[in-house]
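INPUT
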Amino acid sequence: MSYKVLIVEDLQELLEAMSDFYREKGAGLWEVVTASDGKDALAKVAGNDFDLMILDIMLPGASGFDICKAARSKGDCPIIFVTALGSENSILKGYETGCDDYVVKPFSLKQLYAKSLGLLKRAKKNQDSDLLSCGSISLNKRTMLVKVNDREVSINAKEYFLLVYLLENKNSVLTRRAILERVWKDDLDVTDRVVDTAIRRLRDNLGEASGQIKTVIGRGYRLTEE
Amino acid sequence: MSYKVLIVEDLQELLEAMSDFYREKGAGLWEVVTASDGKDALAKVAGNDFDLMILDIMLPGASGFDICKAARSKGDCPIIFVTALGSENSILKGYETGCDDYVVKPFSLKQLYAKSLGLLKRAKKNQDSDLLSCGSISLNKRTMLVKVNDREVSINAKEYFLLVYLLENKNSVLTRRAILERVWKDDLDVTDRVVDTAIRRLRDNLGEASGQIKTVIGRGYRLTEE
DNA sequence: TTTCCCGTGTCACACTCGTGTCACATCGAT
DNA sequence: ATCGATGTGACACGAGTGTGACACGGGAAA
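OUTPUT
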């Protein structure tokens, strides 16, 4: 498993120094992509999914801010700005456009690298806690998208929260009461049987993965890997 | 009750300092097992069930990652990595392989010890009070899953609650009356003999562990370790 | 506003499967 | 050997669950 990093810098020597550092230091951890002008950078942002971007602000073609905006409209990978000494207002603008960190020239490669790892770890943690999966079912709590075998499926609100609860407790048997208390919360003046109906509709929408929801007679339901 | 900790470190002095610290500090709380190379560590992981592992990453024989993977494939005991200063990518990789925490050399033993206790407490919380076991039978009250020799078996509702009662009173003789009052609760207008039937069905489903339910003629049933 | 549609709760019916009961076989104690 | 206690197979009933249909209500579209 390697992480894809985009480094954008017009000063050729610095660009090489940085990319070499990432290639060597990580020992295979990084896949480095470089660009030395704004247009090239924008094209590469559009055509790839990066795990990290390091953007110089002053660039020919397009500014680092433009690239940042383009990246943000596409995803939310961590971005570090590289800025010249004394241009603090640039930094401010950088945070506005949504960068995660910045370094001021001249900077040490080691320091930049440390920041990279920190951001990456944070991003990973966030993703992990947002991403639920079990067998062929995966669910992203942030985007609220549900996929079965990487194909997107659409489900309704109640089914969604029910699925989240099932995923958060996969392999456990969940009683109707527990499900009611978690998914229906306040409107507890409903029949136990609504759970059955919700499960049915969820199974319908899950299609081929419907078998992963097992009925445990007398006790409740259970989501299994297969 | 003591906790079994595996400490793997090739630097002899450090290894001794750590193991001494755990032995003295815990005052009997810890059973310390040590290894100073990868091969030895892997053998000890395979041959024991640990409650905690502290793994150096750089080792002769096999890396801490390898040991971590081996441990993960076996169970989910908490793992703390010990890494040298400046090797942040190791930390990242550690989180990927599934470590729970890490310390960077040089570290204070006190700090490491605090992390240990924290992880242990967290792990305990997940297991304890929910887990019942007797001989080759284990039952998780939270997930409602029953295992015999680590193989999952499926049982029905009545059998499940009967087994819970048996497990909560293992080695005791339980009369039919007591079982009826606990497992059948309200529907007490049934024959004593339903217990026999329930026991029979439970034995069937427990398979190789069926012998653990002993009949005590004239009094009732009793769950034994073997 | 009105109209329509979609999400959701409820009911009715069908059916599976768990469970209680009985009859008979077997076991064990005296 | 005898008798009470327990194991075992079979069976029938009913609880628990799947499923289709419908009604209600809120939000979107006209």
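end of record. Residues 193, 196-197, 199-200, 215, 217-218 of chain A lie near DNA strand D (CB under 10 Å from a C1').
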